[in-house]
Specification:
Strands 1, 2, 4, 5, 6, 9 and 10 form a seven-stranded mixed β-sheet that branches. Strands 3-8-7 form a three-stranded antiparallel β-sheet, with no helix packed on it. It has a three-stranded antiparallel β-sheet with strand order 11-12-14. It contains four helices and 16 strands. It is rod-shaped. It has 306 residues and is an alpha+beta fold.
């Protein structure tokens, strides 16, 4: 009589690791022999090992497994130093006395080791004291892997924080008072998982510090710009006032007078004035009309009609 396991047991392992395929039998059951076979996926099945009378007989014609097989007992097969080609369907045919045969199947998948991810942060300008940033989960591999974000030790879905379509980027807008959380990026395949965490407090404090510095720089720049503009306006205003006063200095409003002292001894006209009354010079002086500077000014200035 032959019985078969209803479904194949799935096993996920990593490259270089080990896989142990074990058949579960009731306690006290005696096993006559166990035959292990491997389906290469090319449509044929080969017998790789057989356990008979307490010892292992390796029957691998292609020598794919070499010395990497172990059979510690009648119901267990071990494969060490797993390779990518070791993945596939394994079967165990167990013969029990007196004439019972039971078949068990195992589906082994071999995956690459997951590298440790790296979290990179991108700070965005903050408003009202909020912490706005984007976390990028970088994985140095092109293999298919799942990326999950979570807070603390809980790897929960953070879709409310806007996760990118590929799952690598997490956009956060955190109000003050929520910066004590730790965000974790977890990268996994069915056989391995690696995680990296980052504390928000250090990133958000750095964000607010940069924002404060830029605010101070902006304020100082505005003050300097206002001071320069005011100084330029004041300088132009003083120049205009100085230009308006210049013609008044060139044209005085009142005539200037100079004190003329009589020379001793008299010269020129003074000699004529000091000559005797009956001299020819005095006769010539009497014939010449004498006018003052005020009279000349009045004659040269047009009379205003009243």
């Amino acid at each position: 009589m032959t019985t078969a396991q209803p479904t194949a047991r799935r096993m996920n392992r990593v490259l270089g690791g080990s896989a142990w395929l074990s058949v579960s039998l009731p306690p006290g059951v005696s096993v006559k022999s166990t035959e292990w076979s491997f389906n290469t996926g090319l449509g044929r099945t080969i017998v790789i090992a057989e356990f008979i009378s307490g010892r292992l007989e390796q029957l691998d014609p292609g020598d794919q497994f070499g010395r990497r097989l172990e059979v510690p007992n009648a119901t267990t097969l071990g494969i060490r130093e797993l390779k990518k080609d070791d993945g596939g369907l394994y079967s165990a045919r167990v013969k029990l006395p007196p004439a019972t045969v039971e078949d068990y199947h195992f589906h082994l998948a071999v995956y690459e080791l997951v590298p440790a991810p790296e979290i990179q942060s991108q700070i965005h300008p903050s408003t009202l004291g909020w912490c706005n940033l984007t976390l990028h989960c970088q994985v140095p591999t092109t293999a298919a892997m799942d990326i999950t974000w979570g807070t603390g030790d809980s790897l929960q879905d953070l879709a409310r924080h806007r996760v990118s379509a590929d799952g690598q980027s997490l956009h956060l807008a955190l109000p003050p008072g929520t910066w004590n959380d730790t965000y974790t990026c977890s990268v996994s395949n069915p056989a391995d998982r690696k995680s990296t965490s980052v504390a928000m407090q250090s990133l958000c404090l750095s964000n607010t510090t940069h924002a404060t510095m830029w605010t101070w720089f902006l304020c100082i720049g505005l003050i300097v710009a206002v001071a320069v503009c005011f100084g330029a306006w004041l300088w132009r205003r003083r120049r205009r006032k100085a230009a308006g006063r210049a013609p008044m200095r060139d044209c005085p409003s009142e005539p200037q007078y100079a004190e003329i002292k009589r020379r001793r001894p008299p010269e020129g006209d003074e000699q004529i004035l000091s000559s005797p009354p009956d001299s020819p010079a005095q006769s010539l002086l009497a014939m010449t009309p004498i006018t003052s500077i005020y009279a000349q000014v009045q004659l040269s200035t047009p009379q205003l009609l009243t």
